[in-house]
Structure formats: C-alpha cells, structure tokens
Amino acid sequence: MLTEARTWVVATRSHSLGRATIADVAREAGVHKGTVSRALRGFSGVGPSTRDRIIAAAHRLDFSASDIATTLATGRSKTIGIVLPTMRSWYFLAVATGASESLTPAGYRVELINLDTDSDYLDINSDQFRQLFRELGVGRGRDALLFAGTISIEQDEDNDACAQVPAALAGMPLRSVPGIFIDHRQGGRLVAEHLLTLGHRDIAVLDGRMTNKGNAHMWDQRTDGFRDTVRSAGFDIDKKLVIFPGDCHAEDGIRGMRSILESGMRPSAAFCHSDEMAYGAISVMRQAGLRCPQDISVVGFDDHPMSQYWGLTTVTQHAHEQGVRAAAALVAAIGGEFEAAVPDSDLEELKVELIVRDTTAMFQPPGDAPHTGRVTASLRD
Fold this sequence. Notes:
It is a single chain. By secondary structure, this protein is of the alpha/beta class. The protein has helices spanning 14-17, 22-29, 33-41, 48-60, 68-74, 90-103, 127-136, 184-197, 216-232, 250-262, 275-287, 307-310, 319-334, 338-341, 344-348, and strands spanning 2-11, 79-84, 109-114, 144-154, 164-169, 172-181, 203-206, 237-238, 242-243, 269-272, 297-299, 314-316, 353-355, 375-376. It has 2 domains: 2-20 and 62-181 and 322-348, 3-Layer(aba) Sandwich (Rossmann fold), CATH 3.40.50; 184-317 and 353-376, Rossmann fold. Strands 3-2-4-1-6-5 form a 6-stranded mixed β-sheet, sandwiched between helices. Strands 9-7-10-11 form a 4-stranded parallel β-sheet. It has a two-stranded parallel sheet with strand order 8-14. The longest helix is centred in the middle third of the chain and has 17 residues, at 216-232.
C-alpha cells in the first residue's frame, strides 16, 4: 500500500555504510594519510602532481575534507543537512525549526539545503533522487541528511506507523531507514465526520495537488478518507465540484472558490486541502457578501500558525513536532540505536487531530430551498 512520508530521515553512518575515510583516500592515491591531510587543506609541501592525484582519489571515493580534524579523530563531522524543497513554505521551515532545535543541543551543526523546487514531491526511485543523495550525502562533510518533503513508498505491512524508506548511496546498495508519517486519510475522515455531524451534505473539496507534478498521493489520501466516511454515512458522491486550482496556496483557494461561486452552485461547506487555500477561499466569500460559517463552513488542513487568528477549523499535522521526531530518529540512526531511541509507540502518537474553531457551524438551509442531499468532492476517476 502506498503511504506518504512528509518528513523522513536518511542516515549515513560511516562505520556501517562504508563512508570513505582519509585512510581510504591515502590508500587509493598511494600516499600517507598526513600527505592527504596537507593536500586537502591546501598546505605546502605537497607536489602538484601528488596533490592532483589525491584530489582525484577523493572525488572517486566521494570524500570531503570538510572538518577534517574532526573526521580524522572520530570519523564524523557532527554536521547534518536538512534538505528543503523550498524555503517559501511555512511547513518546511517549521519542520526544519523543530529538527534544528533538537540537533543543536545534541552537538550537531545544522546546514539548511534549499533545493528551490516548485514541488515538495521526491521520488526515491528516480535517478534525480539518487544523484541528489550522492551530491549531498556521504563524503560531503555531513553525517546524515534529513529530508522534509513528500514521498510515496511501499508501506511495511508489518508496521503501519513506521514504513521503511530505501536510500541510494554512492556505490552502496539500497538501505532502509525509518520515516515519520502522517495519516492523511484519517485527516480526511475527521473533516467528514465533523461536517456530517453539523448537518452538511453539499460539501466541496478544493484539491491541493500541483498540475503535472507527481504529488497526487497525499491529496488523494485526504480526499479518500473524506469520501469513504461520507459514503459510509449513506450519502452519494457528486463530482460536479471537482476543483483542482493547481496548487495549495492562498491564490489557489481564491481560484477554487471563485470558480464554485461563478458556477452558480452553492455548497454549504468546503474542505480545503491546506489552510492557505482556506484563507483564499474565505476572502472570496467575503468579497461576494457571504458569511463564514453562516453561509459556507470552511475547514482547512495543516494548522498554519496564522489559523488561530483566522479562527479556522483545521486538521493539525504537527509540523514542528515532525521535525523534532525526525531529528531524534536521525541521531539515533547515526548511533545505530533507532528502535531503542524512537519506539514505534512514539511514532504512533504523532497523529492528525481536528481543531474546531470558528469557521464551521450547523447547516442552515438557504431560505426554503429544498436540500439536494449531495456531497460534491474532487475525486480522481
């Protein structure tokens, strides 16, 4: 079964994964370790041809001279790279903050690596990912990498809470390490249960997937959980409001809600796949003279820091805590004690929760118009 890892860790332990050492470079170049140290530090006393040979050997072995003194003494740099798809997203910054707040007191230096991509989706089986890991990971002056993003992987059937993430290392076989997972289906179920309890039946879903990007699974899971709960309550699914604005930001919520209102349809509630989409949707409603929640109830997903000020009902996925847990898992993996440091029960406790605020209310029929009894959702075929 495919699941989504929103934050996951890739450990690059030198003693277990064959990370190149200065001794390996010396052996490859046919020189003494001290000569390698002087050459990579730029010191004098090393001939040009010898220096070139050492540098070539270091490149072949993916060895970096960063923090060479520490590496010589311990085999580790005490540096961890946190890889962000973009720094424009509050979510990734929240994850990075949580991780950094755990790693720094533990004695690690943190590097933020911004990929500056237009998608948070990483395909771990792609050549792009393998190249990325080679460029950023082993032998590049970092003990480990923490990726904050979305990936689709085959879930471990024996452990729903802790799927195994394969990582490609330079010259090494695939190795599985634990990830931190969020149950997006459960989030969708919580939204549906809340809105159904309030009496809503005409519910629109604004889907947050990016156009032509491979990040559909997470959004599908949110909608699937919503859809399954609605159907189990005895209601049918209407696809007339299949809304794919193109992304999950405020401007996409604006486009999505605007298209709904311009179509002449009037759902009594809307499930937005992100809080930012909900902000945009509510702003369009206000411009149209509609009240939230009296005319249309709105639910988001994320628990953005600003949502408490909007009074937005939303599903929290604990972004900061994801970073804290991922950092703990990563440090434990470096020390070879992941299961002891981060037991499955801890991972299972990181569950989505519905936070009810002011943007949802009991269904109020508009005038005397008969209720259609439909639920409209953006569902894949």
